[in-house]
Structures are given as structure tokens and as C-alpha cells.
Amino acid sequence: MNPLLDSLQPYPFEKLRLLFKDVTPPAGLAHISFGIGEPKHPTPPLIRDAVIDSLGGLAAYPATLGSAPLRESIAKWITQRYDLPSLDPLTEVLPVSGSREALFALAQTVLDARRAADSEPAIVLCPNPFYQIYEGAALLGGAQPYFVNSDPARNFACDYSAVPADVWARTQLLYVCSPGNPTGAVLTLDDWRELFALSDRYGFVIASDECYSEIYFDESKPPLGGLEAAHKLGRGFERLVMLSSLSKRSNVPGMRSGFVAGDAAILKAFLLYRTYHGAALSTVFQSASVVAWSDETHVRENRAKYLRKFTTVTPMLADVLDVRLPDAAFYLWANVERTGLTDTEFAQRLYADYNVTVLPGSFLARTAHGVNPGRNFVRLALVADVDECTAGAQRIVEFCRSLSVH
Predict the structure, then answer these.
(1) Does residue 406 register a pLDDT over 60?
(2) pTM score, two decimals?
(3) What's the rounded Cα separation, in Å, for the pair 18 and 348?
(4) Class of domain 3-42+298-405
(5) Which of 117, 163, 257, 320 is the most buried (most CB within 10 A)?
């Protein structure tokens, strides 16, 4: 067996299962889960209809490169969404089977263990807290993850200036997540300017995970993207790719439909890897994805639902926890320190007393540089309908107030 598999940590939800193993929640309260970030809004009818209309495609093998209509629809969406002058659908866009699979596989394409400095392992830089796929991709690629802690005083932005030069010299891949999971933080143009300068100096690839880019709260201020930042700063897409998907934008996580876009040289190598990897997107979902990327009405309706939930729930929870509206995405990142409980104690007791699930922040981070930046935070995924989210928030309020009584 591959010995590198032994370096993988349990997934956060496995840790949560073990935390709850001996807990029996009250039977009289229906379970409300803020734990898993899985979209719960109904799939738009136009996408469901497109899937049905495309079922004839099951009779053919899908092309790894994806169909021309799909690449063209993605390129058109990117240029319109990020105000780019152009994007070559053939060389700068590659459909993938969801951003999760592509985030992992990209590391296998980019990492070169032979190029490590001074015989030390190559480094993959990750935000902390983070999406665990980044860590797994680094470890199974033979690299060493290096975690850059988020800073609450900087709106949970990572302080890349604190990374030593010898670490940058060994870095081959940098994962960024904007809007971030779990904090919802969005990188600024100044952040991107700093990262591009570092990439130019040290030669590493930037993989920008932007799967939450279409869930935000002000229609006039969509989150800045990596390709958009490069264009604004007058540069090309060298050593830069962005990854996105339809899962959150269009409420179709079961389609596993996404894309990678950016540096044509990286995408050429990635296509070669994927041709052997065998991860082509189903022709049925390719056809349905064309319809999804070509329509913004359902996306605006989706955002309106999240806006209603966040503007309802956030003030409720702010009375008992340190929490505020994020920049974007569908998570609340709440500090529970004022309750006197750790994040794991809070999650376990909330489940035991009120049958509500939240995810401890320490499960989403690693101890790095002497601290676990997820400690004393919990992540709440506001993915259910507004009534269920409101009911869950009310239970959390009652739970927190019961702690102060005791």
C-alpha cells in the first residue's frame, strides 16, 4: 500500500461523528444540521429539464476536453462575470468533474519532487483553517503542507509576509480559497498583488478555489476573482488557475460539474494528466452545464434566499456569540469563547441538549506556529431553508443563555 496514505488525517465529519458517538440528543427535538456545507435549495427546473433532455448522451463516452459548447459557455461566463476582454475556450478552459476532484488532481500535475531545494520536500502552501483536500493533495503528491494562519484582526486574511524566504523557495503550489471556507473572507486586490509578486519571484503555481464566488450579499459588489485580479493588475495568467463549480451557484452538487481556467500551459499538462486519470464529465451533465452557465436568473434567486437567511440569523446569534456577516459564501464563522466552552465542548453540548449540529473550527484547521486558528470557533452552514435556519439559531440562542444561567 502507498505509505503516504498513513499521513492523511480523518475528515472533519469523521471527527464529528466520534465526538457525538456517546451522545443521545433529545428525542422531542427534530435534528437541525448546520454541519455539512451541502446546498439544500431545490435544483432549478431548467437544469433538471436539461438533464432529462440530454439522456441520449449516455450512449457515448465523454471527452476529457469537454464539448465545445460547454467550454464556450464557461469562457463566456468567466469573461462576463469578471469583465475580462477574452478567454480562449480551447486552451484556457477545461471542464472537470467538480472542483474538489480537480483541486486534488491539480497537485499531481504541478508538483515535482525532484525540484525540491536542498533535498527538502517540496512545499504546498495552504490557508489555515482550510479545505482538507489541499492537505491531502499535498501529502499524496509527496509534498509538505505549510499552513498560513488566518488573522481575525485582518478579516481572517492570511499574513503571507510572515512566511520565511526559505519556505517560499521550496513552494511549488499555493492554494487560496476566496471566498474562504470556513471564514467567508475574500482576497483584496492588494492581497493578489502580493501573491503575484511572490509567484513571480519564486515560480510557484497559484490555484484559486472560487467555488463560493456566486454567493454574496450585495449585488453591486461580487467577490474579486483571481483571473480578474490579474487582468486589473495588467498581467496575464502565468502560473495562475482558478477553479469553480455549479454545485453552490446552481444547487446541483450531484452533477459534480466544474471547471479550471487560466494558464494555458498548466491546462495543457493537466489535460494530459486527466486523459490518463479518466475523470471526464458525463455528456449528460456537460449538456446541462451549458444551460446552467448560460442563465443568471436562477443564480440571483439563489443569492436572495441566502441573503434572507443571513440577515435573519446573524443578528440573532450576535446576541450570544461573536459573529458577523461574512464577505461571502454560505458559512457563519462564530467565536464561542464568551460561552466559556471550547469549540468541541460547544458542539457536543449543543447537540446533546438541543439536537443542533455545528462543526468545531479546530477540526477545520491544524496547529501551526503554536496555535490552531480554528480553536474556539464553530462553522455554521446556512444551507437549509430560512425557517429551519431560524429555528436552529433560536435553539443556539437558548442554549447559550442557559449556560449563563448556570
Answers:
(1) no
(2) 0.95
(3) 10
(4) alpha beta
(5) 257
